[in-house]
Design a protein that fits this description.
Elements: H1 3-32, H2 40-68
Helix pairs in contact: 1-2
Length: 69
């Protein structure tokens, strides 16, 4: 495994961790019916989650292309 693959794996792990934590926050807020869910911050967190999910998909696609070459 070269240095770029190590970095990519670390970033990939961090992205998955952040997505997981954002989902946990959202689930806890649903259970507690907190006003946070309707706030601007919540909207921003959902946007971050969407962007990270997209980044994850792009990383997976790049890995697949690299493997084919």
């Amino acid at each position: 495994m070269n240095l770029n693959e190590k970095k990519l794996n670390r970033v990939f792990h961090d992205v998955l961790t952040i997505i997981s934590e954002l989902k946990e926050i959202d689930e806890e807020c649903k259970k507690q019916k907190c006003p946070f869910r309707k706030s601007k911050i919540h909207g921003l967190l959902l946007e971050v989650q969407k962007e990270l999910t997209s980044l994850r998909e792009d990383i997976l696609e790049a890995i697949e292309i690299e493997d084919e070459e």
